[in-house]
Amino acid sequence: MIESRGEKIFKIINNFLLALMAMAALYPFLYVLSASVSKPYNVITGKVLLFPKGFTFDAYKEVLGNPDIWLAYGNTIFYTLAGTAVSMIFTICGAYALSKKRLRGRKFFTILVTLTLWFDAGMIPFYLTLRDLGLINTRTGIIIAFACNAFKVILLRTSFEGLPDELEESVKVDGGNDLHVLLRVYLPLVKPGLATVGLFYAIERWNGYFWSMILLTDTNKIPLQVLLKKMIVENDLQSEFTAALDFSSTISAETVTFATIIVSILPIVLVYPYIQKFFIKGMLVGAVKG
Amino acid sequence: MRNSAAPIKSSAPLNKRMRPKGDLRTYFQELKRDIIRDRILYYLLIPFLVWFLVFKYLPMWGIQIAFKDFSLFRGIGGSEWVGFEHIREFIGSEYFLRVFKNTVIISLYGLLICFPAQIILAIMISEVTRERFKKVVQTLTYLPHFISAVVIAGIVTTFLAPDNGLINLLLEKLGMEKIYFLTDPNYFRGIYTTMNLWKETGFASIVFIAAIAGIDTQLYEAAKMDGANKFKQIMHVTLPGILPTIVVMFIMKIGSLLSVGYETIILLYQPATYETADVISTYVYRSGLIDGRYDFATAVGLFNSIVALILVVSANKLSKKVTDAGLW
Q1: How far apart are CA A122 and CA B284, in angstroms?
Q2: How far apart (Å, rounded) are the C-alpha atoms in residues A184 and A128?
Q3: Shortest distance, CA A284 to any CA of chain B (angstroms)
C-alpha cells in the first residue's frame, strides 16, 4: 500500500519524538561520563553540558586508588556470581518439577509459590526470621535469603511447559532419568528463558543495596552499592574536598562521585547490549502466556 | 478388602479414575509408587520448597508480633498479646494521615502520568518501520531500568544540588533564583515521579509492545481501506487490541498502590521533606529497623498489606464486571 502524505508526516514526527526520548534517556549518563573526566572548575561553573572540558583522569585515579572501592567491588562480584548461581539452581529445580503434570500436588505447590507474590510477611518479620536463623552479617545470608523469586520461577516453568512431551519420552526410552532430561535436553532448549531469568537475578544482585545495608554491619562485607550510598547520598565526600573550587584543582567531590558512578555501572553497560535480545525474547514468552 | 490394591500396574490416570472414593490405602500406595518412580522429580522439588517455607512462610509466623508486646529476649512465642493496640496507635497517630496520604498521592502520580506514558511509548515504537532505529530507541530507553537506585538517586542528587548542580546552574544562567529542590517538600513528589518516568517508562513498555505485535495486521489494512488515518487506526485498532493487557497491568498497579518503592524514597528524602515524601513503607523502615519498634512496625506493615490485598481483589472484580479481563 502507498503511504499517504499524512502518514509520512506522522512518521517523521514520531521518529523525531522517539529520537528525542532516546536522547533524554541517555543524556544523564553522558553528562556524568563527561563531567567525570573534566576539570572540577568547569563542572561546577556549568561549562560541561555534553562534552568534557579540561580533560583529566585524576578523579578516576582517586577512585581506583581507594582500597575500599576495590574491596566493595570484589564483594559485589562475589555476591553477583555466587548469588546468581544459587538462584538459578533453586529456580531451575523448582520450575522443572512444577512444569511436570505428573507431579503430585503440583497445583498446591504452584499456588504456594505464587501466593508469595501477593502476600508477603513484610520487612520486620523477614528481618527477625533472618536474625533467628543467625544470618545477620553473613555472606551466606545475603546469598541464600534472596535466592528465589516466584515470578522468575513461573517464567521459567512456562518456558519448560512450551517444550513437547515427546522430547522427554525419547530420553526416557533411551534409559535416561529426569536429570538427563533436564540437563541434556531441556536446559539447552530454553536458553532465552534461562538468560532472561539469570540476567534479572544478576542485575538485582549487582544493584541491590537495601538488604545489604540492613544485614551487613561489617564494612569488609559490604557490596559496592552500600559503599556508593555512603559516598554519594550521605555525602561523605563533601567534607574531604571542600577546597576544590579553584581553577587549578583536578579533583572534587563531584567529579569523584561521577567517576565512582561510571565505575559501578560500567559492567552493566558493557554486558547489556549483548544480552538485551535474550531478555526481550524471554519477557515475551512470559508475557504472552502469563 | 485386602485385594483392593491389585490393579496397580495399569497406567496412573486410569487407576485414579477406577479408585473408589475414600479408599485411602490405595491412594497412598499409588502415591508411594509414583514418588518412587519419579523420585528425581521430588528430589529436585524438596530444596526449592524448603526455601519457600523458610524464607517466605516462616516469616509469616512472625506477623503475630503485630498483636503482641514484642520483646527480643522472650521471643515471638513468649511475648504477651496486646490485641489491636499497635494498629490503633498507628491509626490514631498524627503520622497515619500523613503517610497514608503521601502513599496514595505518589502512587496516583505514577498511575496518571507514568502508566499512560508507557502505553504511548509502546505505540510510538510499534509504528517505527526501520528496524535499526527501532532497536536503538528500545536499547536506549530500556537502559535506565538496569541502573541501581543508588546510582540514579546519586545522579538526581548531584543534578539538583543547590550550589553547583546542573539544573541550578542553568536556572542561574537564565537569570532565575536557585531552588533547594531536595529540601523543599513542594518538589519531592514531582522529582520522584519524573525520576520514575525517566527510569521505567522504556522497560515497562515491553509488555505493551508485545501486545501490539499480536494484533492482526489485516485489521490495519481494513481500517486503511475505510479511510482511517494513523490517529484513527491507533484509536480504533491498536487501543482496543491491547485493552486486555492494559486492564491486567492496571489492576496490578492498583494492587501495588500502597507499596511505593521505599528503596528509592529512602535515598532521596530527608527529614525536611518527610511531610510529602514519607510513605507507609518508609515509615515501617524507620520505626522498625531504625527505632527498633518491631511490633509496631509489623502492625503498620500488616495494615498496608491488607489494604493492598483488598484493593487488588476489588479492582479485579470490578474489571471482570466491566471488561471481562482480569488477573484470575
Answers
A1: 9
A2: 41
A3: 6
Sign of CA dihedral A111, A117, A119, A125: positive
Secondary structure of B165-234 as H, E, C letters: CHHHHHHHHCCCCCCCHHHCCCCHHHHHHHHHHHHHHHHHHHHHHHHHHCCCHHHHHHHHHCCCCHHHHH
ipTM of the complex: 0.88
d(CA A62, CA A263): 12
Domains, chain A, with CATH or none: 57-288 (1.10.3720.10)
**Exposure b/e, A213-238, CB count within 10 A at least 16 = b:** bbbbeeeebbbbbbbbbbbbbeeebe
The owner of cell 535499526 is: B132
Tens-digit pLDDT profile for residues B101-132:
999 999 999 999 999 999 999 999 999 999 99
Helix B131-142 / helix B115-126 crossing angle, nearest 10 deg: 160
Q: Give yes or no for a contact between A229 and A211, defined as CB atoms under 8 angstroms apart.
A: no
Query: Taking a contact as any Cβ pair under 8 Å apart, which residues of chain B between 199 and 218 contact chain A?
Result: 202, 206-207, 210-211, 214
Coil, strand, or helix at residue B68? strand
pLDDT in tens, A245-268: 566 677 888 888 899 999 999 998
pLDDT on residue B37:
85
Gap from A121 CA to chain B (nearest CA, Å)? 5
Instruction: Report residue A37 as a C-alpha cell.
Output: 573526566
What local confidence, expressed as pLDDT, does residue B275 receive? 93
